[in-house]
Amino acid sequence: MKCDSCQEKATVFYTQVADGKLKKFVLCEACAQAQGIMNPEGLLMAEELLGAAAPAAAIADLAPFPSSGKCTSCDFTLEDLQKVGRLGCPDCYRAFAGEIAQRLPSMHKGLVHMGYVPDGLVKQQALRNERSDLDAKLKAAVISENFEEAAKVKDLIDALEKSTKKGAVTS
Fold first, then answer.
1. Going by fewer Cβ within 10 Å, which terminus of the chain is more open, N or C?
2. Against a cut of 0.70, is the pTM above it?
């Protein structure tokens, strides 16, 4: 293949997704360096994302991918994945599911992303759930004309609101 810029022999294959559109570039090493594509820190941000826990092995150091297989949406191949270190489009995850499943345990700490929810949001959701439960109990007590229970639940709701306002002021 020829470089898109200077027609020399292409050795760098670069895929970019911008505004939901896939763009593929084929460049020689000199043109890729001139455009800053050869800087691995600029492309693979593992150290920035993982800090000191970044895996020591780069994607290129892993076992080579077989050269068969192609994504039907973007024509990305397993060979392209070996070269650029990432997939071409969301459909590539389905197209290369078997190969990804084999290699993922050696590339990442776990196979399930647990995510992160800030403590404040967890507490707010717990308070909303508690308030919702108390409102349902109050409504049920009123419908069944159990006014003593309704009064107790109303006191719990008032205490919850008071503690919530107090917590908001001190936070």
1. C
2. no
